[in-house]
Amino acid sequence: MDAFIRVDQYHFIKDQAHNLLNGHMTTNDSAVTQALKSITYEKVLDLFTELTNEQDQLISQVQQVHDETDAILYFSRLKQYVVPFPELTEDHIKELFPKIKKLIVPSLADIDWSETSYISWNDLGANRKYIVAYIDGKLEGIIGHYHPSRQKSICTICHDYEKVGLFTSTISGRLNEETISRGNYICHDSNKCNQNLKSKINLKKFVRHMQG
In Å, how far are 78, 107, 119, 151, 201 from 114, measured between CA atoms? Predict the structure, then answer.
């Protein structure tokens, strides 16, 4: 069976499985747990427009998560069928930011591509944040001014409550020499953001908004 699960779908399924696990821990009512199983399976099933019988059998196993051991084994099976973020090289990334002459690219060797919907890194010395994502099959790179916040807030990309910073990009307006600044609060830690990201729609909206 070929890989068929996007990274964000994988994290959504993990989240639903954890919700089901919490349900087992808080109730002994068999009718309640059966309802939770059905609801969880339906939510996961809604992620996909079409599944083969083999794929459906794998997905349906989310209903069998009763404890942490079940969850670990299930996530391990799922991960084998996650479509990973296409592996990048330092040269690929530098091509996305041609105006940055001394671009410092983070180490790519330790990235788990099957856990990654986008990559991002902070250049705190220059108050910048870089983001690289595949949007509609095309590799996109955006750069913005970045100022960490002292308080947690809702991240625009993953929609979770995390340590964030204000990411601001400047785009050209309709008139000559006109510029427009756009800003959103996003996670300071992109690895944490990737773990939280359960819908790639939010990532796409953010990138397109920042691009104008």
Answer: 11, 16, 12, 30, 18
Listed in sequence order, the residues at least 6 apart from 165 whose beta carbon sits closer than 8 Å to its beta carbon are 129, 146, 147, 148, 149, 185, 186, 188
Handedness of CA 11, 13, 16, 21 (dihedral sign): negative
- pTM, two decimals, is 0.89
CA dist., res. 88 & res. 203, Å (int): 19
SS3 content of the chain, % helix, strand, coil (to 5): 40, 25, 35
Residues with Cβ < 8 Å from 178, sequence gap 6 or more?
Answer: 172
pLDDT tens digits, 47-68: 999 999 999 999 999 999 999 9
Amino acid at 186: I
**C-beta of residue 79 within 8 angstroms of C-beta of residue 150:** no
Lowest model confidence (mean pLDDT) among 23-27, 119-123, 171-175: 171-175
Residue 97 has pLDDT above 70, yes or no: yes
Q: What is the CA radius of gyration of the chain?
A: 20
